[in-house]
């Protein structure tokens, strides 16, 4: 059974579960330095986790932009739970949540290897390739 929980409180268990997934995926698997992964936007974001049988297995966060959009970041799924549509399920939940809140678009910086995943959700590549923590990215946008 899958459940999605969210919180903007950095003292919440939801936030702690999110950072745990991020540390496993980004710091341990992708060698992102911890001081870049845990950043100065932590207390400005809303964190979303997908729980499978009460275990946090997927996460993402967003922060609002000044022009009516949201910036989604830190999308991660634990290795043993990938390719099961859990990331898509979590992001679709976030899109519905954001739309209900009055936001009209989503932007994110996608690692290039994940572009097709985001394209299947309706995102379009915008801008040129750039490097972030040594990983090739492109910004992508989805209208809600």
From TrEMBL:
Q: Which residues form the signal peptide?
A: none
Q: Where is the N-acetyltransferase domain?
A: 8-144
Question: Is Transferase one of the keywords UniProt gives this record?
Answer: yes
Q: Which molecular function GO terms apply here?
A: glucosamine 6-phosphate N-acetyltransferase activity
Q: Which organism is it from?
A: Companilactobacillus halodurans
User: From which lineage does this chain's organism come?
Assistant: Bacteria, Bacillati, Bacillota, Bacilli, Lactobacillales
**Keyword Iron-sulfur annotated:** no
Q: Which UniProt keywords apply?
A: Transferase
Identify this protein by name.
Answer: GNAT family N-acetyltransferase
What PROSITE patterns does UniProt report for this protein, alphabetically? GNAT (PS51186)
């Amino acid at each position: 059974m899958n459940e999605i929980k969210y919180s903007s409180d950095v003292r919440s268990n939801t936030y702690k579960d999110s950072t745990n997934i991020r540390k496993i995926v980004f710091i341990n698997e992708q060698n992102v330095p911890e001081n870049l992964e845990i950043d100065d936007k932590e207390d400005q974001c809303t964190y979303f986790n997908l729980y499978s049988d009460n275990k946090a297995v997927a996460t993402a966060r967003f922060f609002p932009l000044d022009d009516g959009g949201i910036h989604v970041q830190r999308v991660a799924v634990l290795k043993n739970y990938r390719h099961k549509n859990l990331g898509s399920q979590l992001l679709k939940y976030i899109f519905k949540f954001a739309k209900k809140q009055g936001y009209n678009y989503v932007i994110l910086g996608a690692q290039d290897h994940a572009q097709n995943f985001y394209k299947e959700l309706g995102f379009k590549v915008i801008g040129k390739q750039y490097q972030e923590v040594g990983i090739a990215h492109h910004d992508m946008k989805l209208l809600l």
